Amino acid sequence: MLYTARLDLREQIDWLIPRLPDQREIVLRGEADYYGASAEIAAAVGLAEVPLASGTWLHGWTYLNPTMAEAMAGYKPSSRVHLMNKSVQQDFLRDAGYPNAFAVGLPVLYAKSPDVERRPRSLLLAPFHSLPEVTPHEDQKRNEEAFCEYALGLRGQFDCICACLHASCVKTGQWIETFEQRGIPWVTGAMTSDANALRRVRVLFASFESVLTNQLTSVVPYSAVNGAKVSIAGPTALFPPIESFAQHPYYQKHPELLKNFALRHPDRLKGLYPELFVEPSDAICPRDWAESELGVPLMVRHEDVARLLGWRLVDGDPVWEGVDRRKAVSLFGWLPSSFRSLDTIEKVGQLLDRDRVTPEVVIEHLKAQREAAKKYEKISKAGNSEQVELERIKSSWAWRCIAKPLYAIEKRLRGKK
């Protein structure tokens, strides 16, 4: 359900609904896919399909400084690429043994920028959202009724008030009845498995003059970076009791991070961000702050993000028009795992572009190579596997095409320097 089913409430937002991208559900293969981040990059570089990302990309904003590298990265120290929004996070991970940590800004910045007119005297309500793994806590603890009553009292200041609910809240029925009973329409905002989620929230925050929330979350900088005034006011949403997080995989793996909840107390946050904890009538748009927090100064080209995610030129090379990455990998799948580096694949793509070798020619050569490889399979069971790999390469067209980089590989296989 993308918005309220009540026709009388839907009429209040008939100007908004046509602007919102439809939900396009995707299969999540890793954090880089969350909220359609990798889909945005793929679309920007001209890929019809979204390749699997070999790295991670932090998807949300936090005001907390990093304290546990493995919890932040999601993996033990390795050469895996990790993308984030702040230089302090990058330096923290690199010092902890993650050499390929790069601060490039949050995914929301790379979503297609909306070209919509902001509606004057409009207010978007963005209450603190739930998590599917966390048992919804009682209304009196998240102040649902009280917050909706507070929002209702703002009608004299705004011509249009609409609520934006996270997909997990919509799925569990939180907030919906409370808003509708008070005549406040609602729309679904972000859904983790929606390829259009990031551009959807950008459209929402760019459409309203002001955004009101009851907790300091990503909503605040996301709203401001899209030009909306933002305020944290009304009855504060209290975090669920600690025991509510017992089924959340992240906190099951890192229970020591639960102590950070004490740092999220409203009184502490009001002292840190007094300009944000104001009434909607006094709200400002802290755009410079939001751009710094989300990593706008650190942004790179979409093509550079694609490279960091592990995608290479064969993905979008004009010579390979209509051939997606899976097809390219299947063509070059003969490369031994010991040196099946993405850089080698990229060199192939560059050479194909320079020499104008068509995919059909490559396929014919590789057919012959694969036939030759069959006779080496029996040898590999009784002989030196590395030597067999070398012979397979030498019998292929690709050996002649990328001889120079592979000569170095031959030396390594033979134990030479």
Put the structure in a nutshell.
Helix content is 40%, strand content 8%. The protein is an alpha/beta fold and 417 residues long.
Question: If helices are DSSP runs of H or I spanning 4 or more residues, what is the number of helices?
Answer: 20
Task: Sketch the major β-sheet.
Answer: 5 strands, parallel
Beta-strand percent range: 5-15%
Q: N- to C-terminal separation? A: 62 Å
Task: Tally the beta strands.
Answer: 8
At the first level of CATH, the class of the largest domain is Alpha Beta
Strand order of the largest sheet: 6-5-4-7-8
Give the overall form. Answer: globular
Secondary structure category: alpha/beta
Number of domain units: 3
CATH architecture of the largest domain: 3-Layer(aba) Sandwich
Order of helices and strands: HHEHEHEEHHEHHEHEHEHHHHHHHHHH
Low-confidence spans: 137-141, 313-347, 351-356, 399-414
Report the helical percentage. Answer: 40-55%
Mean pLDDT: 78
Q: What is the CA-based Rg, rounded?
A: 26 Å
Per the CATH scheme, the topology name of the largest domain is Rossmann fold
